[in-house]
Amino acid sequence: MLELVIPALTALHFAALLGLCLYGLHRVWLIRCLYAGDFSVPTVPPSFASSDELPYITVQLPLYNERFVAERLLDAAARLDWPADRLEIQVLDDSDDDTCHLVDQQVKHWQRQGVNFVVKRRYNRDGYKAGALAQGLAAAHGEFIAVFDADFIPPEDFLRSTIPWFSEPGVGMVQARWSFCNEEHSWFTGIQALLLGPHFSIEHQVRYRRGLYFNFNGTAGVWRKIAIEEAGGWQSDTVTEDLDLSYRAQMAGWSFVYREECRVPSELPVTLAALRSQQQRWAKGSIQTARKILPALLGKPLPLAVKIEAISHLAANIYWLLGMIVMLTLYPAITWRVGIGLHQILRIDLPLFLATSGAIISYFFVYSIRSGKKRLHHLLLLPALTIGLAPSISLSVVKGMFNSGGIFERTPKFGILGREKLPCPAILYRQKNLAYIFLNAALFCYCLLPLIFAWQRETWLALPLFLLFPFGFALVVAKDIIELIPNLRD
């Protein structure tokens, strides 16, 4: 039986490596497109000549148990530069903790200042965020709908910067770039900024300028209300309702605009448990959206480039699963072929793996250079952190392949700016991570086997490569343990 299993695992190893190669090639293509400049730069639309031309706007603020950031968000929304008689701010508060009291206090304060705040609460969380947005949309008076999650701080000029782009009647959504108000908090948030930044500055830029589909990121964007309605409205059969609606709207004929220069500060997760929860939802939801959207999209008379890029975009999170497969099958793959010599094996395996990982690292390196944030230690730690996150996110990818919808798990936010420490009551939002400590500790031990195998055969060139896997799992185990002990936190 073993004689059949080991060759099968080896074949699976190379199949997964090939899949990662395709992912890496797509990253290289994005970089090439970014620098090629074979696209037209959109003309900046003129600002409104007078206040009489300004449309009525509804700003939606979906909240659920956000005691640390609710007041900050409401304050920022109240200061948006837009005539008070043409602005409505909906607080869609599904909270069941003291956030409700904080919201009511702050809303009353701003209402006394003449700001049109409306608080909407539900007796249940049906549909989670999608359900709250749908309820708010039904009562919204605005021609345009701006959405901000609790961890965002919209700048005063946000509406002035985005609404003019709707002068073209076919534009259904304008997405702003996320910036990060606590990027300097720790090495952990620094790596996240490096991980998320290219999604906007490279992916969104390229897709927008080349006329390909891209997505509303759930916050820091503005919709034309009729575009939401014509696309079928907010739906909760995936846990990434923003991605789902984005594709339905573009398939309905609406175009999207991305503005790199319009930046909205946001808060990065400061705990590993929070990041893991966020990435699991994004990964699961993207696969659910791919299952839902791709059959219809591929059947439409759209340009081939749009279809190929949609597949690459919606299925991108499969690379977490492929990376996990490569790691789990590495030991069988090198031991089964030991007869031809480990050095000979490395002539194939090592260049293939390095070419794949090199393409992906180059993608982040290019972003790092373009952003002016040349932080080599973040770039070096990024592969290790993604390896440590791969098991939990891979499980979510598999769930997304077979399940629709699911619980919308909020990402804890703590109102942190810069290097500020976690507030003392943050322990109330602590998430379970004990199971992941045991899982990653077991994988750490397993990943020592290829390292020992190469050491025994004095194949020194393989050691740095094989060492990366146990280091990644050791990193996240250490981070999880530190988060279990409040006095040892960052």
Attribute tags:
490 residues, alpha/beta, 56% helix
How are the secondary structure elements laid out?
Blueprint: H1 2-36, E1 57-63, H2 70-78, E2 87-93, H3 99-112, E3 117-120, H4 128-139, E4 144-147, H5 158-162, E5 171-180, H6 187-209, E6 221-224, H7 225-230, H8 241-251, E7 255-266, H9 272-298, H10 304-314, H11 318-336, H12 342-371, H13 376-402, H14 434-456, H15 462-484
Helix pairs in contact: 1-6, 1-11, 1-12, 2-3, 6-12, 6-13, 8-9, 9-10, 9-13, 11-13, 11-14, 13-15, 14-15
Describe the structure.
This protein has one domain. The mean pLDDT is 90. The termini are far apart. It has a seven-stranded mixed sheet with strand order 3-2-1-4-6-5-7, sandwiched between helices. With 490 residues, the chain is of the alpha/beta class. The protein has 15 helices and seven strands. The longest helix is centred in the N-terminal third of the chain and has 35 residues. Strand 1, helix 2 and strand 2 form a beta-alpha-beta unit.
Structural class by secondary-structure content: alpha/beta
Name the assembly state: single chain
Rg from Cα: 24 Å
Helix content: 55-70%
Q: Which stretches of 5+ consecutive residues score pLDDT under 50? A: none
Order of helices and strands: HEHEHEHEHEHEHHEHHHHHHH
How would you briefly describe this protein structure?
With 490 residues, this protein is α/β, with parallel strands linked by helices. It is 56% helix and 10% strand.
